[in-house]
Automatic annotation (TrEMBL):
Positions bound to Zn(2+) 2: D116, E150
EC number from the UniProt entry: 3.4.17.11
Binding site for Zn(2+) 1: D116
Protein name: Carboxypeptidase G2
Active-site residues, as the UniProt record annotates them: E149
Gene from which this protein is expressed: cpg2
Organism: Lacipirellula limnantheis
GO molecular function, one term: metal ion binding
Length: 399
């Protein structure tokens, strides 16, 4: 039986248009956070229920504000539910001018739109508006609006789990289709190599040089031959890897003249896998390849390059069981609004990776964002409204 959700679609769209018109690229979330806070108060949330955490003081990049957190008391008993979304947009969204065109909200084509993730911000405000206006019974709810998602999931990463009021499950809004549930995602490691060779005149005395470029090239060839490059499928696991940057000092090219043996190269790459141990194994494969290459390139006196390989975990993977309580509730919610749920595993990290790590199992749902991070980005309004209705179902279903 389909639930009747009393959503005010015009009000929901108004929130969305308002938020889309506010600049708030990653790290610069103060204005959008203020607007979200004002809209929440306008729909009846007391100012005392709205606060910011201090996550931005722990983020290693300049960040205007902490995560915005809202606590709503329950009007029926039940475990606390968290609804999350991110405030920031990618830099390509700066200056976006949203306009309605048929069923879509688009821009003038010179910027991205920011439906990723203002659809989430508008959805959370519309959810609260609907719950309060129609006095719909719901368990205690926490809303979380994170900062700096787009630049590395920083707000969610630096969030203290104690800020979430003991929420037992979370619905994160950051996707396309309301009926499509993201129930897991890969984890990622980043690796970084500095190769210090030795410069020498390439025509007069090439044998006296140690080419950092050659060490890097051999290492990457080795990594590829050993099966660690691109799509990685081994008996012990699967994942992906990439070499993103092959350059010199501070954004310069590797080497600066054809007649000098290149003395310095800086290479950056990544490894992803559904298993964090296997992401580490891929990284170890690259490390071994660089060690091997280091021993193959020597000058006439037998000296080798200095190779400094380092790696850092970027975010942990997670996988929720199809029959876990949060996935089960998400599926029931989708069926309640007359749709058929599907589940998928993401090859990119989400705030959900960190929320799950913080102890709150998190399913990510969609609310109409399309062609994200491009100048063709648009919001599909009917899909956005389906996402809004879904959130009301998720908040009001019996446990
Ligand atoms: Zn997003």
């Amino acid at each position: 039986m389909t639930m009747n959700i009393p959503l005010d679609a015009a009000a929901a769209e108004k929130h969305l248009m308002k938020f889309l018109a506010i600049d708030g690229v990653t790290g610069q979330e103060a204005a959008i956070a203020k607007s979200v806070s004002e809209e929440l108060q306008a729909v009846g949330v007391p100012a005392s229920a709205i606060r910011f955490d201090d996550a931005h003081t722990r983020i290693p990049l300049p960040t205007e504000t902490g995560n915005l957190i809202v606590e709503l008391p329950g009007t029926k008993p039940g475990p606390r539910i968290l609804f999350a979304t991110h405030l920031d947009t990618v830099p390509l969204c700066a200056g976006a001018k949203p306009k309605r065109e048929g069923d879509h909200i688009v821009t003038d084509g010179s910027t991205a739109l920011g439906g990723d993730n203002r659809t989430g911000c508008a959805l959370l405000v519309s959810l609260v508006e609907t719950l309060l206006k129609h006095k719909l019974p719901h368990p205690p709810i926490t809303l979380l609006f994170t900062v700096r998602e787009e630049s590395g999931l920083h707000g969610a990463r630096e969030l203290k789990p104690s800020e979430l009021g003991g929420a037992v499950m979370c619905f994160n809004v950051d996707g396309k289709l309301a009926s499509e549930l993201i129930i897991g995602a890969v984890g990622q490691e980043n690796w970084d190599v500095e190769i210090k060779g030795k410069a020498s005149h390439a025509g007069v005395a090439p044998e006296k040089g140690i080419s950092a470029t050659l060490v890097g090239a051999i290492a990457l060839t080795e990594a590829q031959r050993a099966g660690w490059f691109g799509k990685v499928v081994k008996p012990e696991g699967r994942g992906t890897s990439n070499v993103g940057i092959f350059g010199g000092k501070e954004g310069q090219p590797a080497g600066d003249a054809t007649n000098v043996v290149t003395d310095y190269v800086h290479i950056k790459g990544e490894a992803r896998s559904p298993e964090s141990a296997f992401a580490t194994a891929i990284t170890a494969g690259y490390r071994a390849a660089f060690e091997k290459a280091q021993n193959e390139v020597k000058d006439a006196a037998g000296a080798a390059a200095e190779v400094k390989f380092s790696n850092t975990p970027a975010y942990p993977p997670f996988t929720l069981a199809e029959d876990s309580p949060v996935v089960e509730r998400a599926k029931r919610g989708i069926e309640a609004i007359g749709l058929k749920p599907t589940t998928l595993f993401s090859n990119g990290g989400l705030d959900a990776n960190w929320l799950d790590k913080h102890g709150v199992p998190t399913v990510t749902i969609g609310a109409g964002q399309y062609e994200i991070h491009t100048v063709k980005e648009y919001v599909d309004v009917p899909e956005f409204l389906r996402g809004c209705r879904l959130s009301v179902a998720l908040a009001t279903l019996d446990p």
